[in-house]
Write a structure and sequence with these properties.
about 20% helix, Thiol Ester Dehydrase, Chain A, globular, six-stranded antiparallel sheet
Length: about 150
Amino acid sequence: MSASPTVLQLIPHRPPFLFVDEIVSESADGLIARRTFRAEEDFYQGHYPGAPITPGVLLCEAVFQAGALYMARTMAGQGSRAGVPLLAKISDVRFRNPVFPGETILIEVKKKEVLGGFTMMSGSIKSGDKRVLTVEFAVAWKTPEGAPGA
């Protein structure tokens, strides 16, 4: 499965660095997304040859992209589409189970609070009934310095 048009409209990420296929559900304080990791993805060639697993940093990135989708929806609801989501803080990452080629994960993000232009969020990934990871993070919505029109 490739990314849904909705995902491509909401965030600037593109293949090969897009790790969300679709939004599954949304609420006022969170979002659930889905991603299937395909065996032919290049990073499996080196992580690890003969026994591939999905790199933890890419699993974290999937959570952060789901957070970016949530932020994009929130900002659009407030009438503001200018800017991009920028990761500001990562803490308490816990890896519980590996993700193998062919697995489909559900990515959940929840808003905790907003302070001084930063949205604090929690994220988690499940594959079937097993918990894969949890992470706390913060996102800012702004036009990056050096970007065109900044």
